[in-house]
From TrEMBL:
<protein>
    <recommendedName>
        <fullName>RNA helicase</fullName>
        <ecNumber>3.6.4.13</ecNumber>
    </recommendedName>
</protein>
<dbReference type="GO" id="GO:0005737">
    <property type="term" value="C:cytoplasm"/>
</dbReference>
<dbReference type="GO" id="GO:0016787">
    <property type="term" value="F:hydrolase activity"/>
</dbReference>
<dbReference type="GO" id="GO:0003727">
    <property type="term" value="F:single-stranded RNA binding"/>
</dbReference>
<keyword id="KW-0067">ATP-binding</keyword>
<comment type="similarity">
    <text>Belongs to the helicase family.</text>
</comment>
<dbReference type="InterPro" id="IPR011545">
    <property type="entry name" value="DEAD/DEAH_box_helicase_dom"/>
</dbReference>
<dbReference type="InterPro" id="IPR014001">
    <property type="entry name" value="Helicase_ATP-bd"/>
</dbReference>
<dbReference type="GO" id="GO:0051607">
    <property type="term" value="P:defense response to virus"/>
</dbReference>
<dbReference type="InterPro" id="IPR059032">
    <property type="entry name" value="WHD_DDX60"/>
</dbReference>
<dbReference type="InterPro" id="IPR001650">
    <property type="entry name" value="Helicase_C-like"/>
</dbReference>
<keyword id="KW-0347">Helicase</keyword>
<dbReference type="Pfam" id="PF00271">
    <property type="entry name" value="Helicase_C"/>
</dbReference>
<dbReference type="Pfam" id="PF00270">
    <property type="entry name" value="DEAD"/>
</dbReference>
<keyword id="KW-0378">Hydrolase</keyword>
<dbReference type="InterPro" id="IPR052431">
    <property type="entry name" value="SKI2_subfamily_helicases"/>
</dbReference>
<feature type="domain" description="Helicase C-terminal">
    <location>
        <begin position="802"/>
        <end position="966"/>
    </location>
</feature>
Length: 1308
């Protein structure tokens, strides 16, 4: 309502001719209340869009994809000047020595190899060995799994293990012997465990008497390590007896007091749960009697009677004593309110022979069946639920089948690539033929064993390079499975289309994993349609192969092509239950202290939201929150008819149940949600509103800068034992600064505790130690020279003893006290710590990270190098670091589970998807039974929005670009296997997620494809048959940078670079600093563009080293850019006019927010509307609503025209035109300047200068410069390959620039 009121008031200020009135009460009308005087609207645009025709093309691929719409398009005749001009030599004279048709080395060849795979140099071999050792160490920190040796086997058909097993029929003698041996081994193991318990039982029992909680912890640690059920049962009984004794003593000591410490009762009930659920078959009469007695002491008489009806009178507790020992509530309420996170989960007990380490759940077995049957699957399951296990099972299967089958694992980030590669190298070992490797990596920065491995770990862009590379198709045919991790990236705004291309180009089965997809059914249906296409294509190709072999020709098909039969089925595997509950808390500041208020998930909802959308599917309550909801409902509506029925003690699924399970609690939660929804729908909306209001926390939010309180927040979490924790922030600077602020806080705390003379003593000891060390070294030299050593031995021993003594004293003096560090020293041994620290000694942030790590603190963001990230990941997982600040990159699949997650900074990037990804890290399976999520400095309405918002549906992004079309045409015409290449290209064009079940969108994409071809033909990158020509290779090489790649080649072809790159004197191969700086200025306008906000330009900052704001392009380049943009916009405007026929005009003639139509008879008396409706001339592609502003089609030619002026329902707008704006303005019309960071760095070579003057984060600046350096190198190599004249000025200038830039960058 506030938004509406604000909008109304703004409009009322704009309308000055008459009184608009107040915003309330609301009035709706379809009649226009504008006056009947004519508005000064221009009748037509001065500039008309040229009516361009299409250049005819003869290509079977074009006919197959867009043949159905070609007949309706205007084509140019063969004698048209535009067509005839294509035949003429368009290239600049200087380019006659350039073989622009020559194929270039591809992106894979140019990516730096981490190690020279063929080198026999001992140093190279040693560094390779060190790499493998560290990878295994890193992998071992990720999961404690012993390495598995893989042996290639002949393929056998696997049974479906999900079904019931057949009875052991024909058991061979060998089977019987093996079974007996196993039995004997098990008995021996049981005996060992019994002996171990006998030796430990006395000390544990004594510990439980002295301190029940620490004793129980030791008891549970023993239970985790023990495998024998009979020993475990004995241990549990000992624990129960100790708990009963402790409860009785506690109740006697607390007699007369109103409250009891129920944690003792919780421990007792935990033991009862365990005994009844896991060891019920071992329980004897006496054991049942003891359990019944315990239940009586807790006040659960009915449960006690149902378990053991008859009891001796002497053991019976008298009624008057009952209140003394009773917990004071029913068993159901007690279990939900105090034992919620301990409730037993329903888990299968029957092992699966395919899995050795754990007993998989039903849904996990379904995944294994998918892999066994060579099927594909979309898998949606919460973080830490164990979905990744299927990936490793899939890898193992392919490794066992042969030595040349490949599994590709696609991860969204480089950090995840490194992690998965380490896990694979730790999990599997295999003896492979020489030159082959088990695991390889391919990212844009480096590659290692990428095309000679069986398991390739890569990022989407690099896998796309391999799939689209014409001469890598034989390798592509070796792929047996592709695993897509975090496949919801398909819905992102940057790089989403690449995920689509991969999913539609692969012929083999795949696994697509994610924790956050809201419409998995739609995604699965789309992928199934893609698989149906490949089924038909495979049949065609198989027939072709068969017929060619029959004729006797053997084309270049690998032997195993189509040999492995795959299924074309795509299964959807859903699992929604998190192992741990998550509870949310809001942080506030009161009296200079941090306070936490529990945030009940229902507090995020409103009655309107529940009525309209129901409860969000993933909004779950912990058992204690369900009780809280029931109590509030009971309190608000006194005459609530179902109050008794839904009371925990009477609830149908809890009735007389000794062990309430997690699934029972979930049913109770669903019943309460259904009931609250029925209140809203059946007229009790006010009561429901009061319930939601009462559940909302009354947190007092302090307006002061809460980030200064950050160290106090961390300290408070430590006191509450809520560490280890991840703290999510969204600015790189904030991530580093908050981590440092916590470290400073601890240092100051230590300084206050230090005795006044401690520093002086340390200084004296350090000086003395230095002197003793010198004496020892001196003595050593004398000893070596002297023959008679005995005299000096005593002296040496004295010096050594003094040295050791001083060293110990100094270490003790400088030692960090336990309460001044968050590090858990016991978690990691000194050797391991040193190993991790040594890896970063030469890294930029190495020393800083080491200093923070000593305090148990770390930070993690995308601008760190992989060694720095690994330090934080390894030490956090091992438990040494317990406080890590991070950006969202850590939420994408990185294995760093923790006890708590804290959102410590608000941001536009903190949305429903990121919230779920990040909060999913809380609660370590096997360590925490509950995870905590804290909101610190996040506005209250935002918290509610995050909790109740659904994850956005995957609907697909615009899938095509000019460069992609060129790369597809390159693949189709140059592919090793033409049929296969063509099938892949058609699959990309036909199977966009955007156009799935949307015929209009499909037609629009066909038209965009044709527009792209026209542009590529006109620019000289394709001929009329669709074959690549000219500088097509160079454009496709720079595909990361569209439209800059097209502009760069247009500058090259027009001779501008040849004019600019003139050497210092004729015949020289060296270029002056001015030439280099001008060349850098042009390239900084094209690549790695970063804009400043307009307000930064207005501020009066003083700059020391950098120019900061990038100067305008040189005049000749600026004119060439304007000419390029003009040509593109002419063609694109024509395309928009043609595609406008696909618009849904019913929707177009509606006002965008109110949806009121302005085409009916009731609008006829409005001059404005009748004017809009009558002047069709010059308004074909412009939205009727935007016509209100007087826009015409001719305005599409102007670059400054906003993108949204076109028809909204055609699915494409001006942002898809490959134009490069020389100037950019914000929505208030203020000019935004480009950051001159690349040019500034080229001039002064200082990273610190960019941090100080250009206002960049150091890590971010480093990676932007690295990216720029890679682009320079790529251009330089391409130009050298294209030009046969070794002394060409442009080639030499780019080589000089690239070399100089790399040298400066390497010195950082």
């Amino acid at each position: 309502m506030k938004d509406y009121e604000y909008l109304w008031n703004t409009i009322s200020k704009v309308v000055r001719d008459f009184e608009v009135g107040q915003p309330f009460p609301l009035r709706t009308t379809k009649f226009c209340f504008l006056q009947k005087t004519l508005s000064p609207i221009k009748d037509s645009s001065s500039e008309m869009v040229p009516n361009l025709g299409f250049i005819p093309m003869s290509s079977s691929l074009v006919d197959q994809f867009a043949g159905d719409i070609l007949k309706d398009l205007p084509f140019l005749k063969s004698d048209d000047p535009i067509v005839t001009s294509l035949v003429k030599q368009r290239e600049f004279d200087e380019l006659v020595h350039w073989h622009s048709h020559k194929p270039l080395s591809d992106d894979y060849d140019r990516t730096k190899s981490q190690f020279d795979e063929k080198s026999r140099d001992p140093r190279a071999l040693k560094s390779l060995q060190k790499y493998h050792v560290f990878q295994r160490f890193y992998g071992n920190s990720l999961e404690m799994v012993s390495s598995k040796v893989i042996v290639t086997q002949t393929i056998k058909s696997k049974k479906d293990f999900s079904g019931p097993k057949s009875k052991k029929a024909h058991e061979t003698k060998a089977d019987i012997i093996a079974r007996e041996n196993k039995k004997r081994l098990f008995a021996k193991e049981e005996q060992k465990e019994e002996q171990k318990w006998n030796s430990l039982s006395f000390s544990i029992e004594e510990e439980m008497k002295a301190n029940l909680h620490s004793g129980i912890k030791k008891l549970e640690d023993f239970l985790k390590s023990c495998k024998s059920s009979s020993v475990k049962f004995r241990v549990e009984m000992v624990g129960l007896t100790a708990c009963l004794k402790a409860w009785k003593e506690h109740c006697r000591s607390e007699e007369g007091k109103t409250t009891k410490d129920l944690s003792v009762a919780v421990q007792m009930m935990k033991r009862i749960h365990s005994l009844m659920e896991k060891y019920s078959e071992l329980l004897q009469e006496d054991d049942r009697q003891l359990i019944a007695r315990c239940l009586k002491y807790l006040g659960f008489d009915e449960l006690a009677s149902s378990l053991h009806p008859t009891q001796d009178a002497e053991n019976d507790i008298k009624a008057k004593k009952r209140s003394k020992y009773s917990v004071g509530m029913g068993p159901a309420r007690f279990q939900l309110q105090y034992m919620g996170h301990y409730l037993i989960r329903d888990e299968r007990k029957d092992p699966d022979p395919r899995v050795q380490d754990f007993i998989p759940d039903t849904w996990q077995r379904e995944l294994l069946d998918v892999v066994d049957k060579n099927e594909s699957a979309v898998i949606v399951a919460p973080t830490s639920s164990g979905k990744t296990y299927a990936s490793y099972y899939c890898m193992e299967k392919v490794l066992r089948e042969s030595d040349d089958g490949v599994v590709v694992y696609v991860a969204p980030t480089k950090a995840l690539v490194n992690q998965v590669a380490a896990t694979v190298q730790n999990r599997f070992t295999k003896n492979l033929p020489s030159g082959e490797a088990l695991c390889g990596v391919f990212t844009r920065e480096y590659r290692h064993d990428a095309l000679n491995c069986q398991v390739l770990i890569t990022v989407p862009a690099c896998f796309e390079i391999l799939l689209l590379a014409p001469h890598r198709q034989n390798w592509v045919k070796k792929i047996r499975y592709v695993i897509f991790d975090e496949v919801h990236c398909l819905g992102g705004e940057i790089g989403a289309e690449i995920w689509e291309h991969l999913l539609v180009m692969i012929r083999c089965p795949f696994l697509a994993l994610s924790a956050t997809i809201s419409n998995p059914e739609h995604l699965t249906e789309w992928l199934q349609s893609v698989k149906r296409y490949w089924k038909e294509e495979d049949k065609v190709i198989e027939n072709t192969v068969t017929s060619k072999r029959h004729v006797g020709r053997h084309p270049g098909f690998p032997k195993d092509h189509l040999q492995v039969k795959q299924s074309y089925k795509v299964r959807l595997v859903l699992y929604g239950e998190r192992y741990n509950d998550l509870e949310k808390h809001v942080c506030s500041i009161k009296d200079d202290d941090i306070h936490f208020d529990h945030f009940h998930p229902c507090a995020a909802l409103t009655t309107d939201h529940i009525e309209r959308y129901g409860f969000p599917p993933d909004l779950s309550l912990s058992p204690r929150e369900s009780i809280q909801l029931y109590d509030t409902m009971f309190q608000i509506w006194e005459s609530w008819p179902r109050a008794q029925e839904l009371c925990p003690e009477n609830f149908i699924h809890f009735n007389n149940k000794l062990v309430i399970k997690k699934m029972d609690a979930r049913k109770y939660e669903e019943s309460l949600k259904t009931e609250l929804t029925s209140w809203i729908k059946n007229g009790n909306i006010e009561e429901a509103r009061m319930v939601l209001k009462t559940l909302s926390p009354k947190a007092d939010f302090s307006p002061e800068n809460m980030i200064t309180m950050f160290p106090l927040l961390v300290e408070k979490l430590r006191k509450m034992e809520k560490l280890p924790a991840l703290f999510f922030l969204f600015k790189l600077g904030a991530v580093e600064n908050t981590a440092k602020s916590v470290s400073t806080f601890l240092e100051e705390k230590q300084e206050k505790k230090r005795p006044p003379k401690a520093d002086k003593e340390a200084h004296v000891m350090a000086n003395r130690l230095r002197k003793v060390k010198k004496s020892l070294e001196k003595q050593k030299i004398i000893d070596e020279k002297s023959q008679k050593k005995t005299r000096n031995v005593d002296q040496s021993l004295i010096h050594e003893a003094e040295h050791d003594n001083l060293l110990k004293s100094l270490e003790k003096n400088l030692e960090i006290p336990q309460d001044c560090t968050y590090a858990d020293r016991k978690a990691v041994d000194t050797e391991t710590l040193q190993k991790v620290f040594n890896r970063v000694k030469s890294a930029r942030k190495g020393e800083e990270l080491k200093a923070l790590a000593e305090r148990g603190i770390g930070y993690h963001h995308s601008a760190m190098n992989f060694k720095e990230k690994q330090l934080v990941e390894i030490l956090f997982r091992k438990g040494f670091l317990r406080v890590v600040t991070a950006t969202g990159t850590l939420a994408l699949g990185i294995n760093m589970p923790c006890r708590s997650v804290v959102f410590a900074q608000n941001s536009v990037y903190l949305d429903a998807l990121n919230y779920r990804q990040m909060s999913g890290r809380a609660g370590r399976r096997g360590q925490d039974l509950m995870g905590d999520v804290y909101f610190f400095d996040i506005p209250f309405p935002k918290i509610g929005k995050l909790i109740k918002s659904n994850v956005p549906e995957l609907r697909g992004q615009f899938p095509l670009s000019i460069t992609l079309v060129l790369r597809l045409m390159l693949l189709a015409s140059k592919g090793d296997d033409p049929e296969d290449a063509k099938a892949k290209v058609l699959s990309v064009l036909k199977h966009s997620l955007l156009s799935f079940k949307q015929p209009r969108a499909m037609d629009m994409l066909k038209l965009y494809f044709l527009f792209s071809l026209q542009l590529l033909v006109k620019e000289g990158f394709l001929d009329q048959e669709g074959n690549p020509m000219g500088f097509a290779g160079l454009v496709s090489h720079l595909h990361y940078h569209e439209p800059s790649n097209l502009v760069f080649v247009s500058f090259l072809v027009s001779g501008l670079f040849h004019d600019l790159c003139q050497p210092t004197r004729k015949g020289s191969k060296h270029f002056s600093q001015d030439v280099m700086e001008n060349l850098m200025l042009v390239l900084a306008h094209l690549f790695g563009r970063r804009y400043f906000p307009p307000k930064f330009q207005d501020a009066k900052y003083e700059f020391y080293q950098s120019k900061v704001f990038l100067d305008d392009l040189p005049e000749d380049f600026s004119d060439a850019l304007d000419e390029y943009n003009r040509k593109i916009m002419e063609d694109f405007s024509t395309f928009l006019q043609i595609v406008s026929k696909l618009a849904d005009m019913n929707q177009e003639y509606q006002l965008p927010l109110s949806k009121i139509k302005f085409t009916g008879k009731e609008c006829e008396d409005s001059q404005l509307v009748s004017h809009l409706m009558s002047c069709k001339e010059g308004r074909v592609a412009i939205s009727p609503f935007v016509c209100l502003s007087g826009n015409f089609d001719g305005d599409l030619l102007q670059l400054e025209t906003p993108n949204h002026v076109t028809l909204g329902t055609i699915g494409v707008n001006r942002s898809q035109a490959p134009v490069l704006l020389s100037q950019r303005f914000d929505n208030r019309g203020r000019k935004m300047s480009l950051n001159a960071y690349a040019l500034d760095f080229y001039k002064h070579g200082s990273l610190l200068g960019l941090v100080q003057d250009n206002r960049m984060n150091e890590g971010e600046a480093y990676y932007l410069l690295k990216d720029f350096a890679l682009t320079l190198k790529s251009i330089s190599v391409s130009l050298r390959e294209l030009c046969e004249n070794e002394d060409d000025n442009v080639v030499l200038a780019f080589e000089q620039l690239s070399t100089t830039f790399w040298e400066k960058f390497s010195n950082v």
